[in-house]
Amino acid sequence: MTTQVRTAIFPVAGLGTRFLPATKATPKELLPVLDTPLIQYAIDEARAAGIERMVFVSHKSKPAIERHVMDDIRLRRELEARGKPQLAEELKEAAFCPKTDDVVFTMQDEPRGLGHAVLCAREHVLDGPVAVILPDDLILGTPCLGEMIEAYDGGHLVSTMAVAAEDVSKYGVLAVTSQQGRITRAHGMVEKPAVEDAPSRLAVIGRYVLDPDIFHALETQAPGAGGEIQLTDAIDAHAMERPISGFRFSGTRFDCGSKSGMLEATLHLAGQDPELAEVLDAYTGNRNHARSAA
Asked: 273, 13, 244: which is closest to 134 by C-alpha?
């Protein structure tokens, strides 16, 4: 069963404290993996999934995000005048046109958690189930959201992957009921459990397709872990009315909310670029030589 998902929500209001001082003036969503900002990967994934309206839940201190995602005619004309029409065209294709694209920016004034950020988008979503994309969960390869929409059959569908036992406390974790192919049925979710309390090792990654009832659940959701309104808690609280399913995606996920994940993603993409092969070979060769000398 394929159900039309018309809206994607991008929660981008966070401060990005793990990347300070780089994020003092540059939002973490604009940090590049090679030459492409994280937010662009997320936008491209939503476009590939056929999303009609994109809602960015941002913060007034991060106007650079809106400047990046919207078309900049002045910049394109400057590039064309300097003899770089191909680059100007690439920027146009990547950006949103204010006249033809359905894009909304709304503000989350206080850092009250992912659940609250999603709730901030309520007035701007189109009818039907909604998608949520966390840009710092970079998934390369087969676009994850498109796979999820194709597999969606109602309730709440979350992307999942198995993680090491010592890492379960970093994630929302599914309480598994059954599994069939890529779909895991669950009777609940636990946000950032201690290792000994985790119901499984199946962690929720930053892609969601949610029944629109999630907004009612978030309205009444009490603060949870970290004193924030957790999306995981709101999904879990109504598991009896709205079934929870996990989806095992095909792509490769990089945790670009961490420095190690950003580096891993950068090296992964650099390894696929022939123009960077010489640099990588020289670095790895010098590194191996240094280890041998030691």
From this structure: 13
Pick the closest to residue 207 from 170, 253, 243, 270 (CA basis): 253
**Distance in Å from the first CA to the final CA of the chain:** 59
User: pLDDT tens-digit profile of 247-293?
Assistant: 999 999 999 999 999 999 999 999 988 999 888 888 777 555 445 54
Under 8 Å between Cβ of 237 and 156: no
Helix or strand (DSSP H, E) at 177: strand 172-180
Task: Pick the closest to residue 260 from 17, 18, 1 (CA basis).
Answer: 18
The pair of structure tokens assigned to 195 is 């290792």
What is the residue type of 165?
A
Which amino acid, one-letter code, is at 64? A
88 falls in which pLDDT band (50, 70, 90)? very high
Q: How do strand 130-133 and strand 137-140 relate by DSSP bridges?
A: unpaired
Q: What would the pLDDT profile of 175-221 be if each residue is shown by its tens digit?
A: 999 999 999 999 998 888 999 999 999 999 999 999 999 999 999 88
Nearest to 181 by CA among 147, 131, 155, 209: 147
- The owner of tokens 């069939």 is 180
- Joined together, the tokens standing for residue 156 give 């709440």
* Complete domains list, the chain, with CATH: 7-257 (3.90.550.10)
Residue 69 contacts residue 29 (beta carbons within 8 Å): no
